[in-house]
Structures are given as structure tokens and as C-alpha cells.
Specification:
alpha+beta, 6-stranded antiparallel sheet, globular
Length: 235
């Protein structure tokens, strides 16, 4: 067998094994996340029942790779991507000793966390916007880190030492809930909604006429209360 052919086969086998392990670990974590969300919804609803006639926290299974948590007027959607990714050379993860020790350490699966308004799904407002507020990266050794907005961005900087588990996932979910409670729906700029056509009013109710999102018409980063996106920087 030629040297070049052997190199190709060896590289293929190595990467295939790593990526399969990454996918398996990410899917295992996603299924743990399902249980965390179910338990959290039940626990929070019990606590709220003392003060609220109708608690509004609801877990929903949306398929093999997607689940959601309705939290009042907000909807958190957790979506696992089925592919395995490598980081671009400008990503801050390369500043860590763990990443530099072996490129294989950085192959990661991703669980994205999106924030939508729950009414967007209730009323089938297909033009409404959601925002990526965080994403969980998991590698072949079940090491993980999170990058995202504010609370989501600075809690998990020990890539290479922390193992993804139910406790970690609960912390991530509760950080997301803290964030969306402070991330309010803002009135859209007047010029963006001052003109509508007849068809829009005849075929839709007023809620559907106006495209809705928490920061519609504003720059997402600069409008955040605490400024720019909090990105994982490592040690």
C-alpha cells in the first residue's frame, strides 16, 4: 500500500472514530437535557403554584433533536445539530492549552439555545424572529464549554476539565432563564410598522401583520443591557 494511501486511510479512520464519539456524547447530553427540562418544569410549577393560579412553564418534545421549555411569554428551544464541527482559526478556544494539546480535542457537537416569543408559535406567526442566546459545545471526552450572551457566556471557562452532566445542564438552563427574564420585548421603531397593505390586513390579524421579535429594529449586541456578546476566552 502506498504511503499516501495509508495516510488517507489512517486519517479517515481516526477522524471517523472521533466524530462518531463526539456525536454519541452530544446525543447522550441532549437526552440528559430532556430529563433536566422535564424535572425543572415540574419543580418550578410546584413552587409557583403557591402564588399563581396557573403556572405557565411547560416542557415539550419537538422531535429527536429538538425540545422546548415555555416560560411565561418566552420559549426556549434547544436544538442539537447532527454534524460535528471544528473551530475556525480565529476562535478563542485555540488560546487554551487543552485545545493546543491536540486538534482532536476541539472536534465538537453543538446544542443551540434559541429564545422566541411563545405567541409566535401559538399564533403561527411565521415571520417572527428568534435569537441564539447560547450554544453548548461537547467533545469526544465529554468536556464542554458554553458561549453566548451575558450569563450564558462567562460561567463555563474550564474547557478540558469540566464534564457535561445533569448538574451542568441544569446550570446552563437556569442561566438561560435568567437571561431571557431580563431580555424584554421592545416596541419596534415607528418607521418599520407605519405602512401595511390591504392584503396583510385582510389575511392576518394585527398580531400577524407586525413581525415580532424581542429586539426587532435594534442591533442585538449593542441593545443588550450589559453590552457585547460574552464569548468564552479560556485561561
Amino acid at each position: 500500500m502506498t504511503t499516501k494511501k495509508q495516510e488517507i486511510l489512517d486519517t479517515y479512520k481516526e477522524k471517523s472514530e472521533i466524530k462518531q464519539k463526539v456525536f454519541s456524547n452530544t446525543f447522550e447530553a441532549f437526552n440528559m437535557l430532556r430529563e433536566v427540562l422535564k424535572n425543572l418544569a415540574e419543580e418550578y410549577n410546584k413552587a409557583l403554584a403557591k402564588d399563581m393560579e396557573k403556572p405557565r412553564i411547560k416542557y415539550k418534545n419537538r422531535g429527536k433533536f429538538q425540545v422546548s421549555l415555555k416560560f411565561g411569554g418566552d420559549l426556549l428551544i434547544f436544538s442539537m445539530h447532527t454534524n460535528v464541527y471544528e473551530f475556525d482559526r480565529d476562535h478563542h478556544v485555540w488560546k487554551t492549552r487543552y485545545a493546543r494539546a491536540s486538534k482532536l480535542n476541539t472536534y465538537s457537537g453543538i446544542i443551540n439555545i434559541y429564545n422566541f416569543l411563545s405567541d409566535s408559535f401559538k399564533y403561527n406567526r411565521l415571520n417572527d424572529l428568534g435569537y441564539l442566546i447560547g450554544r453548548i459545545f461537547i467533545n469526544n471526552s465529554k468536556h464542554y464549554f458554553v458561549e453566548g450572551k451575558r450569563q450564558m457566556g462567562y460561567l463555563y471557562k474550564d474547557f478540558g476539565t469540566k464534564i457535561i452532566n445533569e448538574e451542568a445542564l441544569r446550570n446552563i438552563v437556569e442561566s438561560a432563564l435568567q437571561y431571557i427574564l431580563e431580555f424584554d420585548l421592545l416596541v419596534p421603531k415607528y418607521d418599520q410598522v407605519k405602512i401595511v397593505n390591504v392584503e396583510m390586513l385582510q389575511t392576518s390579524n394585527q398580531d400577524q401583520v407586525m413581525q415580532t421579535g424581542k429586539r426587532l429594529g435594534f442591533q442585538f449586541n449593542t441593545d443588550d443591557i450589559h453590552g457585547e456578546e460574552a464569548i468564552y476566552t479560556g485561561h
